[in-house]
Description:
By secondary structure, the chain is an alpha/beta fold. It has 21 helices and 15 strands. The chain has two domains: 16-249 and 456-467, Glycogen Phosphorylase B (Rossmann fold), CATH 3.40.50.2000; 266-452, Rossmann fold (3-Layer(aba) Sandwich), CATH 3.40.50.2000.
Amino acid sequence: MESTDRSxxxxxxxxxxxxxxxxxxGHMLSLLDLTHQxxxxxxxxxxxxxxxxxxxxxxxxxxxxxxxxxxxLPFPSHPLIPPGVEHVKDLGNTxxxxxxAALGKLRDPLIHWFNSHPNPPMAILSDFFLGWTQHLATHxxxxxxxxxxxxxxxxxxxxxIWNNVENLKPLSEVEFSYLHGSPVFKQEHLPSVFKLYKxxxxxxxxxxxxxxxxxxxxxxxxxxxxxxxxxxxxxLKTLVGHDRVFTVGPxxxxxxxxxxxxxxxxxxxxxxxxxxxxxxxxxxxVVYVCFGSQKLLTKEQMEALANGLEKSGTRFIWVVKTGxxxxxxxGYGVVPDGFEExxxxxxxxxxxxxxxxxxxxxxxxxxxxxxxxxNSVLEGIVGGVMxxxxxxxxxxxxxxxxxxxxxxxxxxxxxxxxxxxxxDELGRIIAKSMNEGGGVKAKAxxxxxxxxxxxxxxxxxxxxxxxxxxx
Length: 471
């Protein structure tokens, strides 16, 4: 690892670092996986958590009983967060702003803890939604490492838009001319957190400042693969002005089970039934359909998707997120009447949770109709399946561009969180992609091999993890 005056590397045999995850599933799982890897490399780690999120650490703490310790601080109050809520899943995507703002109030308790600790941390490793910790680290005179649960492409996009808010807000399209391929995005396809920004609102100014601080950190760590983002990693190194940019993913491959992804009991039985059904299907013949844990489809979207899947004539597994009783009464997440009977034999509809990783890794699955959330993207890559992209919000349009345009491992199916697809067109695209997408499928299998190689001995991710030993 490169030497620097403020390097987290030290002569202490077990350097102490503070890890600060952001309480959203897509962010936290991968940082817990990275924390596990750092624990294996001999670090002493304090992980900051709020009371209701402490159970999420149980398997990690069991794996490292002596080297990883939780620091439990009360979740600060915020007028937009109901009492008892400490995780984004309980608020939805719009909950990110108040949660980011609330967590900023932990600065003073952290300083107090740091100053009273007999062996205070020599570095902070924190999520990129907690950019304010860069200022905290400067105050404490220690380095901060930004952890991105997503890729280097998104990091470059975020840095540019947050540093040029006033110029970009009026534009219908934004061109990123300094990035590889000079990508252009419609205003509505930029990250949700940027689209919601309100100038002069104290919470939003705090968030903006945090995002611009990320690239000023000592180093940036990504749950990504160099082979997926080679040029974007190179661009980011130029942007930050140093080589302390680490791609260490897919982290799910390096730490199976530590972040508590699995489920048991009835869900385990259901998973066995799904895999048994897949065993009876031809190689690459099944489309797996899932839009993540956050997105609940409207009645119109459910009907259009159901009709499209039916018209495609393709075998499929559809994981349906179901809403509250009131949402179901309005048709949210409700499978149309008679649909399951009409497609019986060539489909499985799963309501609730599914073991996505084992399904995507089954030889029978050839396509993944996805919202292109980053964790899903990586799981699709590791499964070696073609991505049928329907990006909706957050970073998903950037991820879809990376998969479809840059890497050629995906096909655009639809886009937009509120869009209702034309079911004939949707069925046609799915059928054509599954039946004729040989080139795309082959590239997806190639990328899988590169991802597996990256996390093996001598691979790029393994090297960056070891280069990052001590920070």
